[in-house]
Amino acid sequence: MKKQAIEIQKWCVETFGEVIDWDLYISRIIEELQELRTSISEGDRINEAEEFSDVFILLLRAVIERGIDIETAIDDKMVINKNRKWSSVDGIGRSIK
To answer: Which of 6, 8, 23, 51 is the most core-located residue (most Cβ within 10 A)?
Structure first.
């Protein structure tokens, strides 16, 4: 995964330059999430895989450009999650505050 992350970041910077407007970048991620939602609701498994990839690429680029060690951040967040109380409806969890 680290090799892919480096290749993705290199391609993104060469193709688009570094992110200047993070609000606009987050809006782009939301657009891709909406396309993913459409693919899933329409049962389009081929496009679904592409849309998941688009979202993942955008998120991966963001964490690299923001200087986040995502593996450590996920590990830290899982410690927090495992110590929270949760509710679940239809397999979708929400923390109970």
So the answer is: 51
